[in-house]
Design brief:
The chain is of the alpha+beta class. It has 5 helices and 5 strands. The longest helix is centred in the middle third of the chain and has 23 residues, at 70-92.
C-alpha cells in the first residue's frame, strides 16, 4: 500500500546505512483478490563474508522474512475499538462506576463517581474503599471479597 512506502524506505535506509542490524515492521499489501493483508517483515543485512551460490557477486544485500499477520492485526484493531468504546461508556456513564482491585483500592473511577464523593480521581486511587464507605458496607464488602469464587458458600 502506498501509504506504507515511507516506513519501508526508512527501514531499508537504516539497514543499508548500518544504523540498525535488523528491522521489523508491519506493512499492508493488497492481494489480487482485493483483500488487504498485513505482512510482518523482518529484514537484516547478512554477513558479507558469507555467500550463498545464488547471491550476486557484490553490492549491498538485505534478507527478509515475511509472515502473514492479518488475523493478528484485525484482532488487535477490534480489541482497540472495543477498549475505546468501553472507555467512552465508562467515563460518560450517568452513574458512578469504579473498578477496584481485591485490596479495595480504586484502579479506575469515572467522573460521576468523583462528583458523587467529592474527590478527584487520583485521590480516590490512593484510598481504599474503607475511607469512603460506611462501616456497615465495609463489613458486607469484606464478606463478598472474602468469598472470591465461592459465592455459594457466602452467608
Amino acid at each position: 500500500v502506498e501509504d506504507d512506502q515511507p516506513a519501508l524506505h526508512r527501514a531499508l535506509e537504516s539497514l543499508l546505512d548500518a544504523r540498525r542490524p535488523s528491522v521489523r515492521l508491519k506493512l499492508r499489501y493488497l492481494h489480487p483478490s482485493g483483500q488487504m493483508l498485513w505482512i510482518e517483515q523482518t529484514m537484516w543485512r547478512p554477513d558479507p563474508q558469507t555467500k550463498a551460490p545464488s547471491q550476486p557477486p557484490s553490492g549491498p544485500r538485505v534478507m527478509a522474512m515475511l509472515r502473514d499477520a492479518t488475523q493478528e492485526q484485525l484482532t488487535a484493531n477490534a480489541l482497540r475499538e472495543y477498549e475505546d468504546r468501553f472507555r467512552m461508556l465508562f467515563h460518560a456513564a450517568p452513574i458512578g462506576v469504579v473498578v477496584s482491585d481485591l485490596d479495595g483500592h480504586a484502579v479506575e473511577v469515572n467522573r460521576t463517581f468523583c462528583r458523587m464523593l467529592g474527590y478527584e480521581a487520583e485521590e480516590l486511587r490512593r484510598m481504599s474503599y474503607e475511607k469512603v464507605t460506611h462501616p456497615e458496607i465495609d463489613n458486607q464488602l469484606a464478606v463478598v471479597i472474602g468469598c472470591q469464587g465461592a459465592v455459594n458458600l457466602c452467608p
